[in-house]
């Protein structure tokens, strides 16, 4: 599952010239998806879980499905307001990624014995994530490109990246493999958000205050949701601290204190 390209190590112009294409996307995903079925190698064992651990995992996966659905709907909706064609193409690749993430997570729920994932996701959805979704879709409807990219490709993606990474450490083998595959894509999505906003912030610093306001409103919702996720999978308290740190690093790269 080696990552052939580290998007954060690329200089911003190289990123802009190469990453916003299906040509790049195909090369990026081929390496870690080849030979897998629903995000994991067919031979990876489905380790038995006791009832409590299974129930906790189902709740957590339902929460991930809500986050991935927000990203799927968001990436698709942002295509219409994206400022140019390469950006629309990138969002098309992201839409495909988010659809795949939702599919493998839903499939994992079925492997765990959830007969009706749709109903289970609705029943277990975290109200804070649903509130994030409502506010994020307002930004999309208002055609606020910078704020919507910030909410989706920085706040939501950076938190997902962190929590999947921390969860993968203690997850059963199948869940671990599919989370590690998803992380590779989320890294590319965060890279896009940082690249897009970094250039705009450098050219128009007045955007900063608007994004800081979005951040103050939205990041507590996502942070609270993912912190309770980590608690549910039995992650040690230090991991919750690390969740905060990892997120802060992403926003600091954009110059937010
Ligand atoms: Fe995703
Ligand atoms: Fe993503």
Describe the structure in brief:
The chain has 10 helices and no strands. By secondary structure, it is mainly alpha-helical. Helix 6 packs antiparallel against helix 7 and helix 7 packs antiparallel against helix 10.
Describe the structure in your own words.
With 257 residues, the protein is mainly α. The chain is 78% helix and 0% strand. It is built from 10 helices and no strands. The protein is globular, with a radius of gyration of 18 Å. The model has no long low-confidence stretch (mean pLDDT 90). One fe (ii) ion (FE2) binds next to helix 3, helix 4 and helix 8.
Bound molecules: fe (ii) ion
Q: Which structural class matches the secondary elements? A: mainly alpha
Largest β-sheet summary? none
Number of strands: 0
Order of helices and strands: HHHHHHHHHH
Radius of gyration: 18 Å
Number of helices: 10
Helix content: over 70%
Write the layout of secondary structure elements.
Layout: H1 12-18, H2 22-33, H3 51-81, H4 85-111, H5 117-124, H6 127-141, H7 145-170, H8 173-203, H9 207-232, H10 237-253
The chain binds fe (ii) ion (2 copies).
Question: Could you list some keywords that capture this structure?
Answer:
single chain, 257 residues, mainly alpha, 10 helices, 78% helix, binds fe (ii) ion
